[in-house]
Write a structure and sequence with these properties.
This protein is α/β, with parallel strands linked by helices and 437 residues long. It folds into two domains: 3-180, Glutaconate Coenzyme A-transferase; 195-432, Acetyl-CoA hydrolase/transferase C-terminal domain (Glutaconate Coenzyme A-transferase). It is built from 16 helices and 24 strands. It has helices at residues 3-10, 14-18, 37-44, 84-89, 105-113, 134-137, 141-147, 195-204, 220-227, 244-251, 276-282, 293-296, 299-303, 339-348, 407-416, 420-432; strands at 26-29, 53-57, 75-79, 95-97, 117-122, 130-132, 150-155, 169-171, 177-180, 213-216, 236-242, 267-272, 288-290, 308-313, 316-318, 323-324, 327-328, 331-332, 353-357, 361-363, 369-371, 373-374, 392-395, 398-401. Strands 13-12-11-10-14-19-23-24 form an eight-stranded mixed β-sheet, with helices on both faces.
């Protein structure tokens, strides 16, 4: 039987695909912009028929009905990276978060998700019947498909065909049900850079040498740094997330991978989130190669790239360099993600550096301004990167190198990049607690 005949045999309606889900199933569907929106919506329409269904995904860009509290007992959602949509619904009681280091994704998929059913948005098959898992499906989709009892794909003509290892594809032979439903791939819009982000970017840029290999995390600050690298030469990319600033650097020739020590000439990624321009750049671009997240975030693999530069965002730091990047007090804001993997990987790299960036202050809802650098973190604040792992921390007032420094050296350095309005208070608190004299 040819793959085309097999395709026709497995082709069902979206509603019939959704009917495969039964009570007590554990359903993993591709995260972010690779979510199979039509199939998930059809599953949600079956709410009253289902009990104790567990959904798993991450950083979704669509407000699915099962996030709502009336779905309790029927369909529950579990996220392993909270974005704005999940955050909005998280206090209503039907969205739970599981936090882990992205480098452990293979273990997490097998031992925590344990999917009965895997569902993904995929590209139209190529001449061999291979369907690309698209911008985010390579995250862990191939492994999830191999573990699941049932595999459903939604073939979407808008999904870019992303090259990669075998784990970047599912063959028609690998799936149980195929449905067809086109929709635009959700975009993560680029927000204009603020003056603060530009200032922070300018403080990081001097540390990045020509020929470096870079990783940029989610959020505006890291992306800002990317846009200010356009005067560099021969940069490479090894990143969990491919973002719009990297497309810009590749288009103008700054990113060519010629100096990479691992996979020279290649843009090495696990997933991509951004604009339509980014998705168009990915489509059948042989310069880009997607790998499973557990491989991309393996610290020894990261460290195999000489002059590796990791740039990630933080929410808050204490004076000794403890970094919180995922919660505001007890309330989870995002998740652990891959930050620590890349901080540690950069430290293993010959000539590598890891930067954690943040604005020095934040404005509260009542209009008051607080320092993001504190003598002690508030109760419930999650430590994403321990101070013993931190390399560089950067605000709009400069970048400081904390690795190997004493407590008193760290405290003085952190005060120097705090907002001037808070430095005197921070120094007073540090002296009271005998952190400095």
């Amino acid at each position: 039987m040819s793959w085309k005949d097999d395709y026709k045999k497995k082709l069902v309606s979206v509603e019939d695909a959704a009917a495969v889900i039964k009570s007590n199933d554990r359903v993993f569907f591709a995260p972010v912009c690779s979510a199979p929106v039509d199939v998930v919506n059809a599953i949600n329409k079956r709410k009253d028929e289902l009990t104790n269904v567990e959904m798993f995904s991450a950083l979704l860009l669509y407000p699915f009905e099962h996030f709502k509290p009336e779905f309790k007992g029927h369909i529950r959602h579990n996220t392993f990276f909270m974005g704005p949509v999940e955050r909005k619904f998280s206090l209503l009681g039907n969205v739970d978060i599981i936090s882990y280091h992205f480098g452990d994704t293979a273990w997490f998929t097998e031992n925590t998700i344990k999917p009965d059913v895997y569902i993904a948005d995929v590209s139209v098959p190529d001449e061999n019947g291979n369907m690309s898992l698209g911008p985010v499906g390579t995250f862990n989709g191939y492994q999830a498909a191999k573990l699941a009892k049932k595999v459903i794909v939604q073939v979407n003509r808008e999904v870019p065909y992303v090259y990669g290892t075998k784990e970047a594809f599912l063959n028609v032979a690998d799936v149980d049900y195929i449905c067809e439903a086109d929709h635009k791939v959700p975009e993560l819009p680029s927000i204009p850079l603020t003056d603060m982000e530009k200032a922070i970017a300018h403080n990081v840029i001097p540390y990045i040498e020509n020929g470096s290999t870079i990783q940029i995390g989610v959020g505006g600050l890291g992306n800002a740094v990317g846009f200010y690298l356009e005067h560099h030469k021969d940069l490479g990319i090894h990143t969990e997330m491919f973002v719009d600033s990297m497309v810009h650097l590749a288009e103008i020739g700054v990113v060519n991978g010629s100096k990479k020590t691992l996979y020279p000439g290649e843009i090495t990624i696990s997933f991509a989130i951004g604009s339509k321009k980014l998705y168009d750049f990915l489509n059948k671009n042989k310069m880009v190669k997607a790998y499973p997240l557990s491989y991309i975030n393996n610290e020894n693999v990261i460290g195999s790239n000489d002059k590796f530069i990791s740039i990630n965002n933080a929410i808050m730091c204490d004076l000794t360099g403890q970094v919180c990047s995922e919660s505001i007090g007890f309330r989870q804001f995002s998740a652990t993600g891959g930050q620590l993997n890349f901080v540690r990987g950069a430290r293993l790299s010959k000539g590598g550096k890891a930067f954690l960036t943040l604005e020095s202050t934040a404005k509260m809802q009542d209009g008051t301004v607080i320092s993001r650098i504190l003598s002690a973190l508030p109760p419930g604040e999650v430590i994403t990167t321990p101070r013993s792992d931190v390399d560089y921390i950067c605000t709009e007032y400069g970048a400081v190198h904390l690795r190997g420094k004493s407590i008193s050296q760290r405290v003085k350095a952190m005060i120097s990049i705090a907002h001037p309005d808070f430095r005197e208070k921070l120094e007073k608190e540090a002296k009271e607690e005998k952190m400095i004299w």
